[in-house]
């Protein structure tokens, strides 16, 4: 009887988790205007999850289009695309297998690990323990709560000083399913603390500047990807009258809001929100940066995937007034990153490099006056996409550290 009861509970628990058996991820290569139209039509008629670009609205000619297709539509999609002479490559043969294969580092049932994808509970207790165990170099503050009431805890790294220091702000995990991103923020904190006093550059950085790190911006979404749907991207806000949940926090900032590369359909994965900063997570970050804008000299935001280092603007093809300097620093950072494992990044202004998209945090911060504003799109280029195996956390974080340190060092040298 007890066993039956237990089995029943397990079944209930499993029922809440979205499974992806038989689903595939395709890479399509639209080379005709007609192909672009077909992809957009396909997206309207069946449920397709766009991995890259982030929505059907963003598809244009000669672009790699990575889409996740539910098992029940596979035959139909395959036939449809082949009849129209579109090139198709299978990136992921069976999505559930890829989800399962992602955890390829040794399991650590209870403990936090820098080479595992830690769930929110583990990240939260890690934040508490790391900030109390190194009180001379790190402190924490809650900058607000998420929609579902979880605290957004910001870490401040830097040698204590009686005067206000210039700072760098970095956030991870704006998009829930980009798990390598929060893994990088955790890695950065560990590296900063463990190399202070040993690595001359890190020591000098933390002596002269503070680095604010928000390990997970979209906490509700991140928690949801661990507990319910691995492929969730947006926030988890709800509004009466709509059955669709959440908005894209990286379309919700006050930067050409919802004019281009964003959707006003609440069901879209690039929904810009009902108004600017409607998403409390975006508002909390924006409020903090506004309050501290006189000291924040650089804004870094970490996403995946595609191996890009982007800078303003995304909401317009116009170049920033400081374009040449931003490009020079991005190219230097990409070269530093590549020096370790040969990983190639493309850098440039977002609109011209990928596609125009409004409401992004990097454009907003730049227009507020934070000159050095960069978006990282970490590994890979689509082989695993959002399901980057844990065995790649360490090399990805190591190489990304070099790029972040390059930017930080440049900013530090150009403070005054
Ligand atoms: Zn993202």
From TrEMBL:
Pfam families membership: Peptidase_M14 (PF00246), Propep_M14 (PF02244)
Signal peptide per UniProt: 1-15
GO cellular component: extracellular space
Cell compartments where the protein resides: Zymogen granule lumen
Broadest EC class assigned to this enzyme: hydrolase
UniProt main location, coarse: other
Enzyme Commission number(s): 3.4.17.2
Cofactor: Zn(2+)
One GO biological process term: proteolysis
Assigned protein family: Belongs to the peptidase M14 family.
Name recorded for this polypeptide: Carboxypeptidase B
Originating species: Cottoperca gobio
